[in-house]
Amino acid sequence: MSGIKDEIILRGLKENNLKNVDLNIPKEKIIVFTGISGSGKSSVVFDTLATESRRQMTLNYPHYLRYQMPRYERPHADLMQNLSPVVVVEQRPAGGNSRSTVGTYMDIDPLIRLLFSRIGNPPIGSATEFSSQSSFGRCPQCGGYGEVITPDINKLVDFDKSLREYAVRFKPLSPSGWQGHWMMTCGLFDPDKPLKDYPEETLHLFLYGPREGERAYAPFHTKNGPHNAEWDGLLPRFTRVYINRDISKLKQISQEDVLAVSSHSLCPLCFGSGLNPKVLECKINGLNIAEYDQLELPELLGELKKIKDPMGESIAKQAIPYVTQLVDMGLGYLSLSRKMGTLSGGEAQRVKIARHLGSSLNNITYIFDEPSAGLHPEEVNMLIQMLKRIKDQHNTVIVIEHNLSVVKVADEIIEMGPGAGVNGGEVVYQGKIEGLKNTPTAKALNRKLKINKHPRTIKNYFAIRRASNNNLKSVNIDIPKNVLVSVCGVSGSGKSSLLLEAFTQKYPSITVGQGGIGISSRSTMATYMGIMDDIRAIISKATGQPPGLFSFNSFGACPVCKGKGVLTPEVAFADPVTIPCEACGGTRYSDEALSYRYEDKNIVEILDLTIDESIDYFKSPKILKRVNMLKEVGLGYLTLGQTTSSLSGGETQRLKLASHLQNEGQIYLLDEPSLGLHAEDVEKLLDVFQTLVNRGNSVIIIEHNLDFIAASDWIIEMGPGGGRQGGQIIFEGTPEEMLNAETLTAKWLKDGVRKDLI
């Protein structure tokens, strides 16, 4: 029996674009899935292997528990055998509310609170009282948020407009809401007069309410007649209803909406810690708990190791491994107080990895989605050692990755392809790196690094002066206009602080970040690019039918599935089952909608056209302009009706870029555009950037990818380290000039050139 090979067996995989794929995946190895964007990597790894493993794990729980857990539908496959429990580490932002920090996410904060409650001086009491979530621990002035939020009158009100013209810019208090309607009909204020023309006393009443000791009656008119009510003032009302209460329970408004018309400043009582000043008096070796939270992680390690009190030392020893794991992941520049929501995709993923590294479980399948994302080439080796460590603990490591350094250390490579979308979904190679030939990845491994030896002439600059956002050390820099600029440097060196904060505060830019674009199953390529209405209008004009008939969100929807295309029968405790709607065959449309045609195609056949095909089909200049943008960023293989929720990370990034391509004379700011892109896709995107610059735009990218950096006209490197060791400009110049520099990026650029010369 010992001769039996332990491997994951997958047969007949058909999720998304997979074409009946068969795979045997060896266990206790590092398996790298690669291939161009949209080739089917995620369909195998996430939508099939991970989903089925999770589904089977939940089957071990009693029915009443399973009903409360996430429920997974069985993937489309003939056979899935020998799966082991999975730990999935994706690039999605780590969950949690606005108060979630690195310390809370890593479960280090409870240990630090326990430490202070046991050995802090003067003693306070229980560990819970060191939290801004507790009634004693929270700052009485800011409620534990660390910031004082007040309505900003100039953001909230446009004094040049009347109430009817939406002078109040906050939707619930505008004419579209009942409160705005009340302001216009209560008789106290002229709804058609600009606020600037109100008498001083009336304006004061409107903004601040009646003066002390006075009352202002303002009847609220309903269909049943007037109701007595009192006017309390716009700013007091806004503060009471939207700042001094938990608005998460309100459906029509979010915290972001409130902050958009507010100003927030550091709380003067707790200095941003969110803690009661009495809590801050308690110290260990001269530091209070807020100061502990602000320390960079290596400094925190030093403080924890200084503790000699027997009880304190035992608690510190429990926290030290967690902190060490974060430092080992190259995140030493973070602090426990760093908000999880402010981390880049790559940083968030490494925090997740560090959280799992402490596990002593084995025979687990670890799945990583591009773990090299956000890593400087200098930091990738650290990642590789971590993957090997997990494997050595008798685990299987499956990685979706384009970084060639990671591909090279794989025990086995599985390349999907040959193309993307409908042209992908097949295994084009499985085996060791030595046998990889004539595939996109094989070509990428042999591709030469092309140094731009003829950079564009620089004539003008964007000036940034004394930038001190986050870790920036009063940075002065001139960033060239109308060329391709790469800003590089190790993680935490200040790239995002310089560009996404200091730069955008002064120069409005078209920013294409790492965030998603929504996950609605009803959002398609055509709707995202703003041409769905035009397509419906064309069919409507040709057939004489209303445009709504050609929408599955309107009265063109199939009456049985209501435009979803699928039915999910209620199956009580069993796993969910999604079946295609028999009435419409999964098309989402009613028979009547499908009976009308334009240029010999009905609405479904039109939405089944690929971007490439639609260029020959449509004559509308607007539609042709938009679909050509998609073709320009290499998405010609996708269909007009493809849902945006089904796109890969690389496809999403290019779709976001395509939606902005019509602009000229603009500043394009891109945060790691290489994310999720195979080397073959990188070349396509580089061509797009060069075209943008040739049209008179400025393109500035935050990037680690050496192909992008080498092709730039100008390079700016931040550093020399991360966190407090960063925040400075350590290089400015052309790619050729960087070959003579002594920075970390220069080291890898030289290394890439040397390999080309061998």
Automatic annotation (TrEMBL):
Family of this protein: Belongs to the ABC transporter superfamily. UvrA family.
Organism: Neobacillus piezotolerans
Domain ABC transporter: residue ranges: 455-751
Any single GO BP term: DNA repair
Subcellular locations according to the entry: Cytoplasm
GO terms under cellular component: cytoplasm
GO molecular function annotations of the record: ATP binding; ATP hydrolysis activity; DNA binding; nuclease activity
Residue spans crossing the bilayer: none
Protein name: UvrABC system protein A
UniProt keyword Ribosomal protein, yes or no: no
Stored InterPro entries: ABC_transporter-like_ATP-bd, P-loop_NTPase
